[in-house]
Amino acid sequence: MVTPDAQNLHNYLAGVSFISLVAPDEDLFYETITYYTDLGFLETLVYDRANPTVGKYQDDLCFLSDRETWLHTDPEQENQGTAITIKVRLVTASRLEGEPSSPKLIRRSSTSHPPTDIRDWRGAKQALVLFSPKLDKIIQLLQKKGYAYQAQPSEHAPFEIYTYDPLSTLVGFTSKPNPFTTIVKSLPAASQQNKTILPRVEPASDAKRRKIAVMTSGGDSPGMNGAVRAVVRTAIAMGHDAYCIYEGYEGLVQGGDLIKKMGWEDVRGWLSEGGTLIGTARSAAFRERYGRLAAAKNLVINGINGLIVCGGDGSLTGADLFRKEWPGLLEELIGNEEITKEQAEPFQTLNIAGLVGSIDNDMSSTDATIGAYSSLARICQAVDYIDATAASHQRAFVIEVMGRHCGWLAVMSGVSTGADYIFIPEKPPGEGWEKQMCDIIARHRKLGKRKTIVIVAEGAIDRDLKPITSEYVKKVLVDVLKLDTRVTCLGHVQRGGTAVAYDRMLASLQGVEAVRAIVNAKPGSPSPMIAITENKITRKPLAEAVRMTKGVAEAIKNKEFDRAMKLRDVEFDEYYRAFIATTVPGKEKETLPEEKRKRYAIVHVGAPAGGMNAATRAAALYCISRGHRAFAIHNGFPGLVRHDSVRELTWLGVEGWAIRGGSEIGTNRTEPSIDLGMVAWYFQKYQFDGLLLIGGFEAYKSLSELRKARQSYPAFRIPMVCLPATISNNVPGTEYSIGSDTCLNALIDYCDAIKQSASASRRRVFVVECQGGRSGYVATMGGLSTGALAVYTPEEGIKLETLMKDINTLRGSFANDQGMNRAGKIILRNEKASATYTTEIIANMIREEAQGRFESRTSIPGHVQQGGTPSPMDRVRAVRLATKCIQYLETHGGTKAEVYDNPESAAVIGIKGAAVVFTPMVILEVTDTDWENRRPKQAYWRNLRGIVDVLSGRKQTFDAADLVDDNEEQGQTQEQAQDREQTQGQAQEQAQEQAEGQVDISDQIFRYVGEVNDDTIAISHPSRTAWWLSYCEPPVDSEYTVRDALNEALAEELEADSKVFILGEEVALYNGAYKVTKGLLDRFGPDRVIDTPITESGFAGLAVGAALAGLKPITEFMTWNFAMQAIDQIINSAAKTHYMSGGIQPCNITFRGPNGFAAGVAAQHSQDYTAWYGSIPGLKVVSPWSSEDAKGLLKAAIRDPNPVVVLENELLYGQSFPMSAAAQKDDFVIPFGKAKIERVGKDITLVSLSRCVGQCLTAAEKLKAEYGVEAEVINLRSIKPMDVEAIVKSVKKTGNLIAVESGFPSFGVSSEILALSMEYMFDYLDSPAQRITGAEVPTPYAQGLESMSFPDEDLISKKAAQLLRV
C-alpha cells in the first residue's frame, strides 16, 4: 500500500545524490581514497582547507572537513545501475571538539582482517552495494590487494561479493542491477582521471561580447600565421568575434574590405604557412594624425574594441601611441561629425596587446620573438652547408646576417655553428680588433682547424661607430692571414620558409595569452606585450619594453656599450659569454691556478638526442679554457666497465661537434648498477673530480644510483650533475631537454609532408604514431605545432568514449568544409598511449565509422624523430647549459666528506618557469619522480592540453584550468609580484650563505616551506639554521636500498631503547664492512657502537652474557661464514638458556650479517646457513628480501625477547625497493611467521626467500609473457616460524608448488616445504611439488661455474613450464 505521503515523496525523490564517508585521520582518509580509486572511481574534486580553490562548490563542503575528495563512476551502458558519487571527508577529532554532540570515529587498522566472523556478512550491518557486471575482476582485485572478502551465495557461483573498506564500511558488489529500475539515464562522463572538475569558461554574454581584431605589421616573420590562427580561434572559443586587418596599418587606415570578420575554418592550415597570410605593409599615413583618425573611425564603425598587433618595435610603438591618443581621436571624430557620441560611447577605451614578430629578436624584456628561431634555423642550415666546402678547401667564409641594432642572430649562430669570431653592434671590438681576430683565427689554424667562419651582423660597428662590413673583414683575412676568403650575405633568405616548431608553439601560446589580456584588461591598465622568459609566457608593459629597446640603439649611439648589453636580457649576455668561453682557447685571465684545476668526466647515457655533441663540446672547451682536463667515457658505463673507455678530450678533437647529431663518444642505456664496484674503481683510477652525465631518464637514474652508492664507494663523493638530453623530455627537474626541439622539428616536417598528401585527397585522416615513451610531451607539443585534430598521450590514456567523440568531430569537420578546404587532418598518438588502441586499430575504427565519407591511413616516423642535424635551439641551449654545469661542478667541489654531506653536490640542471635552476637529486627522487612510468610527476605541458584541444577544434571552449593566470589567481599587482620575487631572492641568498656551513643530513628529515610553483624556494631546517629541508611526512613509496633500511632500523631502535647496543668487527670507525652501520658511531657514541677484535667466539659470547644480564645486544658478523667460530655461543648458550632455565632467563639478542652466495668469494664465503639455524629449537630465523622486509624484520628481532638470527644477502644491500609511508615510520615492524604474497597468481605457487624472491618475480613475468601462466610468488620472510598457512592457501588455489632457494638441496628449506606439502597439501596438488636449489657442490670461484651453481630466472621459468606442461 502506498500512503499519500509516500506518493508525494515519490514525486520528489529521483535517486541518490551522493554517499558521504568520514575519516578520522589522514592515513585512513588517503587509504579510503586509494581503496575506491582502485575499484575504478575517478577523482573529480579535491578540497584542502589550507588551500581552498573550489569556487562554486564551496557550499557543498562540510564545515568540519579539513579535506574532501569527491569520487565518481558512471555505468558503462544503460540499464546497468546509476552513476555514483562518493564524498570522502577528513574530519579530525580536533574539529569535533566543542560540537554539541561529537560522534566517536572508530579507526580501523587493516582491510585484510574483517571486523566480523559471522557466516553471512550481509546481516552484519548496513552496507553500500554497488553494481558490477564483472565480479571476477573485482575478486582478482581484492585478492591482489589482500583485502578480505566473502562471496555469496557460494564461492563457486557468486553473484554478490562483500568486503570492508578502511573505514569499516561494509561494501558489496552485485552482478544484478536494480530490479525495479527500467530506465537509467547516465550522467555526463566523468572527467579525466585525477583531474579536478572546474567550471568551464562560458561564452561571453552579449553585454560583454567583444570584437577583437588582429593585424601583422612591419617585416614578416615565420610564425605570424600561427599567431593569427590562435587569436582568431581563442576569441571565438571565448565567445567573442574575431577580425583580421589585412595589410597591416595601411589596412587599418583604409578600412572597408581590408577589415574582415573571421570564422573558425578561415584559419585552418595556417600553421604550416610561411610569411603572413593577412599581409603587412609599412604605412606612411598611420604615422600622421589624419591616418590614425581614419584608423580610429574604422575600428568604431566595425565595432572593434580590442586590437592585437603582431610586429616589431616600430609596429608596437605605433600601437602604444594609438592607444594613448585614443580619447583625443574619438573627440576629434565627434567634433568633425564623422561619428556620433552614441557611436563612440561603447568605445571609450581601446585595449591593445602586442605580439613581437621579428626575426632579429631585437625586443627587450623577452627571450625570443616570433620568427627569430626560424630565421636562426635558416642561418645555421646555410652555415652548415658552407662548413663542408670551407673545410674541403681550407677556406675562410664571412657570413653576413641580419641585425641592425641587435646582434642576437650573430651571437646565436656563432654559438650554434662553432664560428671563430663574431661582430655584434652591442659589443663592438676595441681598437686593433683586426689583430685580435687574426690572432684567434691563427691559433685555431695552428691547432689544426681547416676552416674559418666569421659571422657579421649587418649593424656591426667598432667603438668609434664606424661600420664593420663583411668586405672589410674579408680584406683583413686575406691581407694578414693570406686566407682564401669568401663572403656570403644571406639577406632575405633568413625570413623565408615555414616556421620551426618553437615559433609555432610560441605564436600559438602567445596568441591565446594576447586574447586573454584583451578580455581581462581593466580601464587605465598599461597595454601588455606578450613575452617569454625561459619557458614561461609572461606579460610585460608594452611601453616599457619599447622604451628599453630604443634605449639599446641610443646607448650604442652614445657609445655606452656596457649599458647596451645590460638592456638586453640576461640570456643574451650568457650566450655571448658562452661563445667567448668556448671559442677562445686558453685565455690567461680565465685560466685557474694549477692547484684549482680539476679532472672532469663526461658520459652519455640513454638514447641519442640532438645537441649531445654540442653540450660535450661546450663542456670540454670551457674546461680547457679554465685549465681543467675533460675526459669522455666512451659508450657509457658498459664501455667503462668492460673496455676502460676513458679518453681525454682535446680542443681540436671536439671543435667540429657543434653541428653533429647523435653521440660522438657513444651512448648506452645501461646504468652504473651493472657493476658499481668497477665503476668506482675506474673513477678512482682516473681521479675524477666531477662528473657530467648527459642523457635522458637513464642518465637521471644513473645519477640517482651513483648518489646513493656514495655510502659504500668514496670514489663517487664528487660533485655530479645531469644535463637532460632526450627527445621525450621526461626528465624530472626540467621543463626542457636537449634534443626535444630537434625531435619536434623532425616531426612537424614529417606531418607537414603527410598533410600535403591528405590535402590532395581532401578527405583523408592520418594517424601518426610519435615517440616519447611514457611521456606525452612530443605528442602534445607536436599537436600544438601541427594543428593536429586530436592528441593521445600515456598520461591520459585512450578511452572508447574519447575515440568516438573524436570520430564525430571528424564527421562534422568533413561535413562542414564539404571538400572545399584543402587542409589535411592529423591525429597524433604517442607510442605508449594505450596497449589496446594501437595506431592501426584507431585508423581502422575511423575508417569503419566513416562509412566511406572519408578515409584514414597510418604513418609511423619512428627513429626519424631523433633527427639528423640538431636544431639551433638544441645547440645553443646545450652550450649554455653545459657551460653552467661545469661552473656548478667547480663551485660544489671539496673534500670527500664535504661533498658527501652536501645534498646539492648531485643535481639536475633544468629550465623551470622563468629560470635556469639546479635541483638536488635528493629532492627530485622523492618529490617529482614517477619511477614506474619514467617521467616527472608534474609536467608543465600537461596544462597546455586544453589549449591544444581548443585550437584544434576538439573542444568547443576552455575550462578554467586551461587558462590559469598566476598573477590574477593570486590577486597580485605587478608591484606585489616584484616584492615577492625580491623576498624570494633574498631568501635564496640567505639559503646559499647558510649552505656554506656544515650541513647535517644524517636524520634525513627535510621540509618544504615554499610553494611548489615558485621560481625560487625559501628553505629552512626544522631544528637548526641549516638551509636544507624535506618533508614532515615521509612520502609514499620512497626508494630505499636494503642497506639504508637496515641502517634506519638500527638507528631507530638505538634511539628508542638505551639497552640496545651493537658490536662487531669494523661496525664503528669503518661504518661497517658493508656500511650498514654508517653514522651510528657519530650519533650514539663508542659505548653503544663497539668495534671488536677478530674473534667471533669471543664477542658473540660477550654479547650473550650481556643479553643474559638484561641488555639487548645486536651482534654483526662480517659474514655468517665467520659465525661458525661462534656456533657454540649461538646454539648452546643463546638458543637453549631459556629452556634450560625453566623459562626464567630470557636471552634478548640479535645476530645479523650477510648470508649465502655473493659474487666471486668461493666456497668458504658463500654458504647459506638458513637450514642450519632453522633446525635449532630456541632460535627464530628470518631472511629479508626487500627494504621493507629488512627494516620490519630487524626491528622485530631487536624487540623480541628471544635470540633471533637475521640472514641478509650481500647482493641485496645496494638494491633499491619502494618503502611505503607506513614502513618509514619508527613504529613499523613485521611480525614473525607472516609470509607476503609478492605477486598474485592462479596457476602455480613459487615459494622462496631472500634474493631468490626477486628471481621468482622475474620468472613469473616471463611465464606470463611466454605462456600466459599466472604464477603466485610467496616471500617467506620468516623461516622459523614459517607461515605454512599462507602456502596451503595458495596451493589450494593454484594446485602446483615449487620451492626455490639458493642453499644446498639436501636437508634444506625447500626440503622442509616439500615435506609440509605432503602433510598439509597433498589433496590440493595437481602435480608433484618440486624444488629448485643450489647445486650439491662447494661454490666454485670461476665465474662461469659459479653462475651454474645457483638458481636463476631462466631455470625457474623453465622448471615451472615443465611442471605445468605448457
UniProtKB/TrEMBL annotation:
Residues 599-1366 are annotated as: C-terminal regulatory PFK domain 2. Allosterically activated by ADP, AMP, or fructose 2,6-bisphosphate, and allosterically inhibited by ATP or citrate. Signal peptide: none annotated. The keyword Heme does not apply. It catalyses: beta-D-fructose 6-phosphate + ATP = beta-D-fructose 1,6-bisphosphate + ADP + H(+). Residues 1-584 are annotated as: N-terminal catalytic PFK domain 1. Residues 1040-1215 form the Transketolase-like pyrimidine-binding domain. InterPro entries: 6-Pfructokinase_euk, ATP_PFK, Glyas_Bleomycin-R_OHBP_Dase, Phosphofructokinase_CS, Phosphofructokinase_dom, PKF_sf, THDP-binding, Transketo_C/PFOR_II. Coiled coil: none annotated. Its main location: cytoplasm. Beta-D-fructose 2,6-bisphosphate binds at residues 669, 726-730, 764, 771-773, 831, 857, 863-866, 934. Belongs to the phosphofructokinase type A (PFKA) family. ATP-dependent PFK group I subfamily. Eukaryotic two domain clade 'E' sub-subfamily. HAMAP family: Phosphofructokinase_I_E (MF_03184). This is ATP-dependent 6-phosphofructokinase. It comes from Arthrobotrys flagrans (Nematode-trapping fungus). The lineage of its organism: Eukaryota, Fungi, Dikarya, Ascomycota, Pezizomycotina.
